[in-house]
Design goal:
The structure holds two protein chains of two kinds. By secondary structure, chain A is an alpha/beta fold. Chain A folds into three domains: 156 residues, Fumarate Reductase Iron-sulfur Protein, Chain B, domain 2 (Orthogonal Bundle); 162 residues, FAD/NAD(P)-binding domain; 152 residues, 3-Layer(bba) Sandwich (FAD/NAD(P)-binding domain), CATH 3.50.50. Chain A contains 20 helices and 16 strands. A five-stranded parallel sheet of chain A has the order 3-2-1-4-16. Chain A has a five-stranded parallel sheet with strand order 6-14-7-8-9. The longest helix of chain A has 18 residues. Chain A is globular. The mean pLDDT of chain A is 91. By secondary structure, chain B is α/β, with parallel strands linked by helices. Chain B contains nine helices and 17 strands. In chain B, the strands form four sheets. Chain B has a seven-stranded mixed sheet with strand order 12-11-10-9-13-14-17, sandwiched between helices. Classes of the chains: A alpha/beta, B alpha/beta. Chains A and B meet through strand 5, helix 15 and helix 18 of A and helix 1, strand 8 and helix 8 of B. The structure holds flavin-adenine dinucleotide (2 copies), iron/sulfur cluster (SF4) (2 copies) and FE2/S2 (inorganic) cluster (FES).
Chain lengths: 495, 287
């Protein structure tokens, strides 16, 4: 598979831009719907599979304005209600079309605090873009207005202007709020609560901030620079950060209130406990959870072999089990760490894969090999307990199940061996065990996720929670949405 | 940032450091550990047990053996230097209660984590017998400190340069055999191979044996799964469920294989820890 080069895209854009914006009369709806969807310029696949730089380069201003013209400004826009935080999408897109980028970003920021991140990592094709009128008209969700890319464009534009002023902070109230975890949920709560003038401290177990955005999602999808920018804005607002601090261990959660006099606590500790398949051989040397693999690569910078001291496994042939974003990231990272063959083994078909479409495309372009309707049966090891192969089974689609999806059924006797030395398990995460284990007062459900009410309050007064620790492994935008809700409740609680 | 207040070399490869860490001092209990980095940007995260703590000085004591890159770098830190990353206390504390007769077995550097546990067991009213094993006299650490706690202290060296010329499993077996000295509980901390054979020694006598596992770790919060071990056919995470487990249930062979996951990568030149190798050789001989 190949992607048009940046030069080709630029050439097409020039022609189209003049056609659209140099005319005397505005475009008709029909003409708008006929504008071709704008491709995302990307780094050349040969080059990028050997570097950590961001793959998607981003729209040029001209390209963004063309894409913005594809939005027909629906009277009842479905995109707004399909966005978990209900951004005024036609509103900001209109401003982009009109060349008012500042106006566009101002609208987004009324509801979203991390647009440069969500624009990059939201699964748009199942959210804001899923029932977009333009996509419906073209009978293809991939031809919807590229809302996420436009969001990213204006957020990047603003950052490049270097004029981002930190939000205004109200006079100090003297109230103290502790935030546990510096993932998107925690960072958003920090911003919203600090704005009201409360004293905010974020506690983070790791030595770097950003949660999964830092240690899970690789640089080639979400550059660290963007997370640093968000953190620096919070710093300018006066938010304090305590790194290398494990709440529940360094301090018991409730002692933050009892001993350290915090008036309220927000728990945003994210997902934890990677799940395994429960198949034979999963304890062999060379089997990793995607979390471990990606943490070594991202947070501990294993790709920087010259400087990094974290050990990483020198793999030749890698099997990744799973079909979500985590699996895509692990597979693409394995290529970048030097693997020759990387297989994604997925039990269903491509259509059911939960990963973002763009990531699947990028992975294919980079050479990741997809084994659909196949699943791992056992992992084989040698006498030193090192992985030497993966025994797989083939599946076919059977009768539809309750969800209407055709259930994959194993084909008897279809076992075959995949020659691999590394297996990365990316089939999801359970809940972070530490906080609930050390704070029995907090009520959890049977999966270990914290139980909250409609205001994100836990079973303990003053303690709120949100993000993956409540939802199970979810998304950045959902974590952010819950964070905003929790922050509003905390602000209300403190007045 | 955690300032190093004291540094001392206990034996050829073993160092003791006291590090300023008021929050950890306040919360830590016997059996817990910390994770540190010698470099915030690129450093590896390594776990070390909290061997002791001082409330007056607000410091924790770390005793470590130089085995590879990070422990070598750590040994080059001096008094007054700051450790860029120190996080803890981690892990579940040892379950301390009155068992009656307790035997504490420490192998090599394992005596360091054993010390606070022995101390706490003694304070809980147990009669503590201690067995310390090392390759030679040079490598025995904390003898004086252990003597203060133990009713009886047995020292074994592989080469007979001090105490008995034996592996720690020998006196352990003798204690188990004799009804008068049969322990109500054994706690063994040392190289995995030593913990494995201590567990095998006590099993026929049905003596509950607790071991402290030193798996590879990254985060220490239950996120990465790097520290997973098989205990009684269940997957357990050493950093949140452990580090201590029932030795009769631990799959040591798998744990040892996994500990060596990165061995070929971490240059052999860096590898100075021979105790486990010698123990292994010895065990093969005695089979
Ligand atoms: C590899 C990967 C790829 C992903 N790709 C996407 C994507 O493309 N799009 C998308 O929308 N979502 C994606 N996700 C999911 C998304 O990243 C998460 O849903 C989101 O980050 C959850 O945010 P959070 O704030 O709840 O928690 P997290 O981001 O998990 O942050 C929790 C933070 O809390 C810290 N912490 C934990 N315990 C403690 C404690 N006891 N004390 C102090 N600190 C603690 C952790 O170290 C961490 O920094 C991906 C996830 C992974 C793993
Ligand atoms: C809970 C816990 C408590 C520990 N307490 C102590 C202590 O009090 N004192 C002490 O000296 N050591 C202790 N260890 C072991 C210590 O963490 C390792 O020696 C250290 O990580 C090695 O790091 P390195 O970079 O110097 O060596 P590396 O270069 O990483 O490795 C050198 C060799 O050491 C082995 N190794 C690597 N990581 C570990 C590990 N986590 N555990 C054991 N062996 C490992 C490998 O086989 C490797 O070949 C503890 C480990 C755990 C999990
Ligand atoms: S649904 Fe699509 S076309 Fe309609 S307003 Fe939203 S983005 Fe524009
Ligand atoms: S936040 Fe996510 S879902 Fe909402 S408009 Fe932006 S990209 Fe779409
Ligand atoms: S060290 Fe990562 S889960 Fe235990």
């Amino acid at each position: 598979m190949s992607h048009p080069s940046q030069a080709e895209i630029t050439e097409q854009v020039k022609v189209l831009f003049d056609e659209i914006f140099d005319r005397a009369t505005p475009l008709s709806k029909k003409e708008q719907l006929a504008i071709p969807p704008q491709m995302m310029p990307a780094q050349d696949e040969e080059i990028r599979s050997h570097n950590l730089d961001e793959v998607a380069i981003g729209y040029s201003p001209e390209q963004a304005r063309i894409e913005a013209m594809r939005c027909i400004q629906c009277a009842k826009p479905s995109c707004i209600s399909d966005c978990p935080v209900e951004i005024n999408i036609p509103g900001f897109i209109k401003n982009i079309a009109d060349n008012n980028f500042q106006g566009a970003i101002d609208i987004i920021k009324e509801t979203s605090l991390l647009p440069s991140i969500c624009g990059r990592v939201c699964p748009q094709e199942t959210q804001c873009q899923i029932s977009c009128a333009t996509g419906k008209f073209n009978k293809d969700v991939d031809k919807a207005v590229a809302i996420g890319r436009l969001e990213r464009f204006v957020a990047d534009w603003e950052r490049e202007q270097g004029t981002i002023a930190p939000p205004e902070v109200k006079p100090e109230t003297g109230k103290k709020v502790a935030i546990v975890g510096s993932g998107p949920a925690g960072l958003v709560v920090a911003a919203d609560v600090r704005r009201e003038g409360h004293d905010v401290t974020v506690f983070e177990a790791f030595h770097k901030l950003g949660g999964v955005m830092r240690y899970g999602i690789p640089e080639f999808r979400l550059p660290n620079e963007i997370i640093d920018q968000e953190v620096s804005t919070l710093n300018q607002m006066g938010v304090k950060f305590e790194k290398n601090f494990v709440v529940g261990r360094t301090r018991k959660l409730l002692d933050l209130m009892k001993k350290d006099k915090f008036d309220s606590v927000f728990v945003g500790t994210g997902a934890g406990l990677p799940m395994f398949m429960g198949i034979d051989g999963e304890d062999l040397v060379g089997v990793f959870s995607a979390n471990e693999y990606l943490t070594r690569a991202n947070l501990m910078q294993a790709y920087d072999e010259k400087n990094s001291t974290t050990p990483f496994y020198h793999s030749k042939n890698v099997a990744v089990l799973g079909g979500g974003n985590v699996a895509m990231d692990a597979a693409r990272m394995a290529l970048r760490l030097g693997a020759e063959n990387v297989y994604v083994v997925y039990r269903r078909t491509e259509k059911e894969m939960p990963a973002r479409v763009e990531e699947v495309e990028h992975a294919k372009e980079e050479g990741v090999q997809f084994l659909f309707l196949q699943n791992a049966k056992t992992i084989k090891g040698d006498d030193k307990a090192h992985v030497v192969g993966l025994e797989c089974l083939r599946y076919q689609l059977g009768e539809p199940d309750d969800s209407g999806r055709r259930r994959p059924v194993v084909i008897d006797g279809s076992e075959f061996m995949l020659d691999v030395d590394t297996v990365i398990v990316a089939i999801g995460n359970g809940s972070n065990p530490l906080v609930s284990q050390t704070t029995p007062e907090l009520e959890v459900n049977k999966w270990g996720n914290l139980i909250v009410n409609d205001k994100m309050k836990t079973s303990v007064d003053g303690v709120y929670a949100g993000g993956d620790i409540v939802l199970g492994a979810a998304t950045v935008i959902l974590a952010m949405g819950e964070g905003r809700k929790a922050a509003a409740a905390i602000n209300e609680y403190l007045t | 940032m955690a300032k190093i207040l004291h540094k001392e070399q206990l034996s050829a490869d073993v160092y003791l450091m006291r590090v300023h860490a008021p929050l950890i001092v306040e919360e830590r209990k016997a059996g817990q550990f910390i994770i540190l980095q010698t470099d915030e940007e690129f450093g590896e995260r390594i776990p070390l047990t909290i061997a002791d703590a001082s409330e007056e000085e607000n410091s924790i004591t770390l005793i470590f053996q130089v085995v590879g890159k990070t422990t070598t770098e750590l040994s080059e830190f001096n008094v007054g230097d700051n450790l860029p990353v120190l996080v803890g206390p981690l892990g579940e504390p040892t379950h301390i209660k009155k068992y009656g007769k307790v035997v504490c077995v420490g192998g090599g550097i394992g005596v360091a984590p054993l010390h606070p546990i022995a101390q706490a067991l003694k304070a809980a009213g147990n009669e503590v017998t201690t067995i310390i094993g090392a390759r030679n006299k040079e490598l025995i650490i904390l003898e004086k400190e252990m003597k203060e706690i133990a009713t009886e202290l047995i020292i074994c060296t592989d080469d007979g340069s001090y105490g008995r010329k034996a592996l720690v499993t020998e006196p352990l077996e003798e204690l188990c055999k004799n009804e008068a000295t049969k322990p109500d509980m054994v706690i063994a901390i040392g190289p995995p191979i030593m913990m494995k054979f201590c567990s095998l020694t006590t099993k026929p006598y049905n003596v509950y044996t607790q071991v402290s596992l030193n798996t590879i770790m990254v985060d220490g919060t239950g996120m990465c799964g790097g520290c997973r071990v098989n205990v009684g056919n269940e997957v357990k995470f050493v950093c949140v469920d452990g580090p201590e487990f029932d030795g009769h249930l631990v799959d040591f062979d798998n744990m040892m294989a996994r500990l060596n996951s990165f061995k070929e990568i971490e240059t052999e030149a860096n590898h100075k820890c021979h105790i486990d190798k010698e123990f292994e050789a010895k065990m093969e001989e005695t089979k």
